[in-house]
Amino acid sequence: MDQAISFDHVTHTYQAKTPYAQDALNDVSVTIAENSFTAIIGHTGSGKSTLVQHINALLKPTQGTIKVHDKLITPTTTNKNLKEFRRHVGMVFQFPEKQLFEETVIKDIMFGPKNYGVSEADAKHAAVDAMNLVGLDQSLAEKSPFDLSGGQMRRVAIAGVLAMRPEILILDEPTAGLDPQGHKEMMTLAQRLHDHDQMTIILVTHQMDDVVNYASQVIVMDRGKIVKTGSPAQIFADPEWVYERQLNLPSSTEFAQRLIDAGIPMGKLPLTVNQLADRIAELVAKGDSMNE
Amino acid sequence: MKDIIQIQNISFNYSNQPRLFDGLSLDVHQGEWLALIGQNGSGKSTLARLIDGLNVLTKGQILVAGMPVNDANVLKIRNKIGMVFQNPEDQFVGATVEDDVAFGLENRQVDRQKMHDIVKQSLKSVNMWEFRDRIPANLSGGQKQRVAIAGIIALSPEIIILDEATSMLDPRGRQDILNLVRQIKEKNHLTVISITHDIDEAAGADRVVIINKGQKIDEDTPAQIFKHPKRLEQIGLDVPYTSQLIAALSKRSVHAAKEYLNSEELITWIKQLVSTT
């Protein structure tokens, strides 16, 4: 698989050359494959947000280089050269609805493409497409974004990013503050953008159940370093190691651990409720057949 | 049991919007941990704002420690209530973490040395003392929320309202903060109202109130509330993990007697099932 993104020995220091200087990223090297669904997990303050902000060049490395498709960012890349970069990488921040500002939903979504010199008609076309993508009814187009519910506002903000037709979409804790239904809709949207629209999705999350249900690749960060990469099954196979990174297990893996502690054999640790239910049903069937 | 908050037959709507509450009544017992659960837009946060006098009722009244929430009492009432909101960015005023926590105390003209002690103690209790010289904007989301909570703790309120306050924290941080609030609650005999979507957080409450479209659907202990997982699902809430597993087992023809068991009960049942040999 082609690589969409690669970090080569990247260090980022906040407040460099001051007494408060601190490395938020420390010698990070990693690659993210084209059209992958990658989750980035790590304890609060581990550097997840700093890492993803380099992918769309909101931050430049203090040392090292980042390659996104065929474009390179180095500590000396000028800001002028970053614009083209950002066009291909959509970034949805935490609480993106805070950034809405236009009078109407459609104007807000059109702002990004217009900012890149797209014509009014093309921008509108892109905005209408983006509204469809995120499941916003067209009847909302002329409404003020501020009259919408929190979940709808967030979708407007995401539509604004999608209207730029990025190839890579970064979602930084996109479900924070959403209710369970909004959460499910958001993750279904991410999955659809990945499966149907062939986008490379990078999800920063604390929700381990989302990691096992949606991601194919996981990057674990701890104190500014990448400490493990692998499939969800590889990452969660060692619960001790996960706990030491101050992370949680997916609900089903954690529950399986408790069953193991109660003396019930589990074999390979399940990641999802269906895997766990399969395992328990197997054990029950085995018990029944032995009784016959 | 004494009721520290009495919500009596209230009606309310935001201007030009349909009525949100129509005759809602609810009591909050002194010293309890009450979880308010419901979808976004169900009116949970509005209820918190009405208790704190940030919005004005159209009908009915709310009493806090026996005082009606009105213009005459609102400052006294706000001194009793510490609100922690979902997004701490909205709450920062100080240039440094330490200044930010001191802000509320400065407003109350607390003596300088005493203020320093309180700020130190509050920041230590949320594990943020070593960050005291940092700029709040440069902290991570979870760290910001800890600072916001320290700011509330510093003012030693009688009631703490957590409005989705832990939703930005990672699971460990969330548990830490909840444990911390629990400790402070016990130590200072506080009342905690937690507005949450987190079903595990609700499970730790003394009582749970379900709000849907401005209506109180039910109020009971978590165990009683969770006996109806389908109802939770219907109103767009999460179902406790144990109920999800029971439902998944049921699809595989392994049927439990109930739709909800707590973790211990579920483990005991599974153990019996698999060790019938």
TrEMBL record, chain A:
Domain ABC transporter per the UniProt entry, residue ranges: 5-248
InterPro entries found in the cross-reference section: AAA+_ATPase, ABC_transporter-like_ATP-bd, ABC_transporter-like_CS, ABC_transpr_CbiO/EcfA_su, ECF_ABC_transporter_ATP-bd, EcfA2, P-loop_NTPase
Membrane disposition: Peripheral membrane protein
SMART domains recorded: AAA
EC number: 7.-.-.-
Domain of life (superkingdom): Bacteria
Localization per record: Cell membrane
Gene Ontology terms, MF aspect: ATP binding
Alphabetical keyword list: ATP-binding, Cell membrane, Membrane, Nucleotide-binding, Translocase, Transport
Pfam families noted in UniProt: ABC_tran (PF00005)
Presence of keyword Lipid biosynthesis: no
Main location: membrane
Listed SUPFAM superfamilies: P-loop containing nucleoside triphosphate hydrolases
Cited PANTHER family: ENERGY-COUPLING FACTOR TRANSPORTER ATP-BINDING PROTEIN ECFA2, HEAVY METAL TRANSPORTER
Family: Belongs to the ABC transporter superfamily. Energy-coupling factor EcfA family.
Known partners and oligomeric status: Forms a stable energy-coupling factor (ECF) transporter complex composed of 2 membrane-embedded substrate-binding proteins (S component), 2 ATP-binding proteins (A component) and 2 transmembrane proteins (T component).
Physiological role: ATP-binding (A) component of a common energy-coupling factor (ECF) ABC-transporter complex.
Protein name: Energy-coupling factor transporter ATP-binding protein EcfA2
Origin species: Lentilactobacillus fungorum
Gene responsible for this protein: ecfA2
TrEMBL record, chain B:
Name assigned to this protein: Energy-coupling factor transporter ATP-binding protein EcfA1
Top-rank lineage group of the source organism: Bacteria
UniProt-annotated location(s): Cell membrane
Principal location: membrane
Cell membrane recorded as keyword: yes
Topology with respect to the bilayer: Peripheral membrane protein
GO molecular function terms listed in the Swiss-Prot or TrEMBL record: ATP binding
Organism annotation: Lentilactobacillus fungorum
SUPFAM superfamilies: P-loop containing nucleoside triphosphate hydrolases
